[in-house]
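Case study B.
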Amino acid sequence: MMDIELISLEEAEKAGGREELVLLEQTPRFYPEFEVFLRKKMDGQSGRISFRGASGMAYVVAPLKESDQGLQGIGISVKKSSDSPADPEKVDLDLWSFLEWLVDQVDGDWSKEALRKTGAIYKAPGAPGRG
Amino acid sequence: MNVYRQETQIPHAVREIYPFESRWIDVQGYRMHYLDEGERSGMPTVVLLHGNPTWSFLYREIIPRIRPSCRAVAPDYLGMGFSEKPANERLYTLENHTRIITEFIERLGIRNIILVVQDWGGPIGFGYAQTHPENVAGMLIMNTWAWPDPSEFHDSVLPWRMLHAPFTGANFFLRQNVLVERGLYLSTLRNRHRLKGGPVLEGYRLPFPSPESRIAMLAFPRNIPRREGDMNWERMRQMEKELSRLAFPCALLWGEKDIVFPPSNAFRFEKLIPDCSAPRMVPDGSHFIQEDAPEEIAEEILKLCARTGQRSK
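Model:
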């Protein structure tokens, strides 16, 4: 499983001016350590995290804007230059790497191994060893 | 309001195994889907409450077995089945589900009820029964819980808490739909083969085609309390306390191989509820007992109907 590469927002913007929301977490504080960790990692100026996945695609992790029908939370969007949807298999793999990066660093009982085992049990797309 | 609505266009293969008339009612401003089948006789009305990630489809093999004798009503909760699916996860609380099911029962004017509950049907059904005991004639309790302390499964990071933690949960539940795609299979035993593919799995998938249609599914596990102070801890503590005051007869049917709610839960109910029969174990049954043992469930419902019907004469 490839790691993600944290990149600058400027670097992510180079991938294109369009965004496709690929994951929305409405309750990042359900286990507060997740939100605490992400807020710490967010860029002070932009309030975002930008990363590149193994596919080469760039992503931004950002709080939802007010305009999103009143929903709260943090979304992960892939940056792209066209309207055509991003390849879902590549997105699954990139998201999985992001989740491994996340649970590996969040405080508490969370671990990459537990995530991998869960992914294998439930045969989650993107997870290694899903059989 | 940002909501997900879906036409009930049911493919032929699913319609063959779910041959019921869809009905709709507005409850608290939401369009709720339900089934209402069978005889409106002097017998009690059976209200069938599902869990997560299921819907009234779960009771498709039980309804035909009981409807010659009694009326069977099976609602889909808010955000589940073909009921309306608001986009805001915060709406999907135990309190809200209970309030909506309570009003649903009132709006349909159902009296003299046999409640049949499994998984989340337990906390929602007990929530109704404890506030409207005069309207409940009996209860069939299957693979569920009604107390604040979590089962070992619900307290473990691997796999349960990892499945619904922030971001991992959005991926597993919303993006990948693993609870339907794999969870149903893992939590069924006798008829597990049907959850690998074909019309049964297709039926379970049908109302949940996209991440925005699965938000209630992710909210359910986040409603399970683990520690004092958690959402629903106090509600479920009170629920357990009031089990000893239930004055109607209860029966227990349990999938013995369930690791989510093991047989010890059944014995705990037996101990706590005054008029409760000894648990009937289904040795080759698991969590989704409706998939594993529809004949046994129908038998138990009809026994309860006969018992409570006689009582009310």
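Strands of chain B lie at 3-4, 23-27, 30-38, 45-49, 71-75, 85-86, 113-118, 136-142, 250-255, 280-282. The remaining cases will be described in the next quarterly update.
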